[in-house]
Amino acid sequence: TYIIAQPCVDVKDRACIEECPVDCIYEGTRSLYIHPDECVDCGACEPVCPVEAIFYEDDVPDEWEAYYKANVDFFDDIGSPGGAAAHGVIDRDHPFIAGLPPQNT
Ligand code: F3S
Ligand code: F3S
């Protein structure tokens, strides 16, 4: 899967959403999250993020390793809705993201 890391937090440009052919990029309160089971690794989202927040899972910088787990675990109690647009904005974040001080301000 691809994941979204620190540069997205409190920024949420949302350009990535338009590129994803399977609509698997879900919006939380402070960040967006890529669904690890719905993402087909097409990579279309990665180059359009203006702050370079998106990485293939094996390419996540070490300093942002925790964002892999945050992206995956975010969906523990959501399951696989099969489409972010229909599901709508999710008014919370993974606890790791929620606990961060203001980012990228
Ligand atoms: Fe975030 Fe970049 Fe998408 S800032 S919402 S990952 S375009
Ligand atoms: Fe969509 Fe990006 Fe995966 S465009 S399919 S989230 S690599």
UniProtKB/TrEMBL annotation:
<keyword id="KW-0004">4Fe-4S</keyword>
<dbReference type="InterPro" id="IPR017900">
    <property type="entry name" value="4Fe4S_Fe_S_CS"/>
</dbReference>
<dbReference type="InterPro" id="IPR054830">
    <property type="entry name" value="FdxA_Actino"/>
</dbReference>
<keyword id="KW-0003">3Fe-4S</keyword>
<feature type="domain" description="4Fe-4S ferredoxin-type">
    <location>
        <begin position="30"/>
        <end position="59"/>
    </location>
</feature>
<dbReference type="InterPro" id="IPR000813">
    <property type="entry name" value="7Fe_ferredoxin"/>
</dbReference>
<keyword id="KW-0408">Iron</keyword>
<keyword id="KW-0677">Repeat</keyword>
<protein>
    <recommendedName>
        <fullName>Ferredoxin</fullName>
    </recommendedName>
</protein>
<dbReference type="Pfam" id="PF00037">
    <property type="entry name" value="Fer4"/>
</dbReference>
<keyword id="KW-0813">Transport</keyword>
<dbReference type="InterPro" id="IPR050294">
    <property type="entry name" value="RnfB_subfamily"/>
</dbReference>
<keyword id="KW-0411">Iron-sulfur</keyword>
<dbReference type="InterPro" id="IPR017896">
    <property type="entry name" value="4Fe4S_Fe-S-bd"/>
</dbReference>
<keyword id="KW-0249">Electron transport</keyword>
<keyword id="KW-0479">Metal-binding</keyword>
<comment type="function">
    <text>Ferredoxins are iron-sulfur proteins that transfer electrons in a wide variety of metabolic reactions.</text>
</comment>
